[in-house]
Amino acid sequence: MPEPTGIVTWTGVRFSDFAEMIGVQPAAHYCRVISHDGYWVDEEMPTMMHPQVMLAWLINDQPIPPINGAPLRLVIAFRYGARSVKAVSEITFGSPSLPNRTAPTRG
Question: Measuring CA to CA, which residue among 43, 51, 58 is closest to residue 91?
Answer without folding.
Answer: 43
